[in-house]
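Action item from last week, closing it out:
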Amino acid sequence: MLFFDSPILIIGIVAMIVGMIISYILKSKFKKYAETPISSNLSGKEVAEKMLRDNGINDVKVTSVEGALTDNYNPLNKTINLSPDVYQGRNAAAAAVCRT
């Protein structure tokens, strides 16, 4: 019974629940804004490339990687890795991911 009274277990469960709530909110917001077109009609890849050019960054490559919401910058090989929905997306969600 001591195991179930452990504060570490309670903290772990709370952290897991908070993480699940945040994940749900993020996914639902992305889904909502994935249905909102942007006036420029640029894809996520094009938004990222424009952002790099506008800031004088010419040595970073924009690539597509498998997964959902797996977008990241890898400083080791200087790549911006975008999930297919963001890489190809021409919507507010894709543009927002590239701008952050």
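Closing note: The beta strands are 61-64, 72-74, 79-82.
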